[in-house]
Design brief:
This protein has 2 helices and 2 strands. The protein is an alpha+beta fold and 74 residues long.
């Protein structure tokens, strides 16, 4: 499945306002993932982030990717 990395970043910042930016790295960084791929995400936040923020970013990212995969027939 291919996806727009910039749209993912915008969605992450919109749903997690304390995120200054989030960076995909690993296989997903080029906007392509395969079934069973993992997500490697670096998060830079305003202030000291807690585990709740990391959980929220990961959860919302997984939901976002699931929505993208359904739209593309993945």
């Amino acid at each position: 499945m291919t996806f727009d990395v910039d749209k993912w970043a915008e969605a992450t910042q919109a749903t997690c306002p304390s995120v200054v930016f989030a960076l995909l790295h690993g296989a997903a960084k080029d906007g392509r993932i395969r079934p069973g791929s993992d997500l490697d995400i670096a998060v830079f936040a305003d202030g000291k982030p807690g585990l709740d923020l990391y959980h929220q970013v990961l959860r919302r990212s997984v939901l976002w990717f699931r929505g993208q995969s359904r739209m593309s027939g993945f």
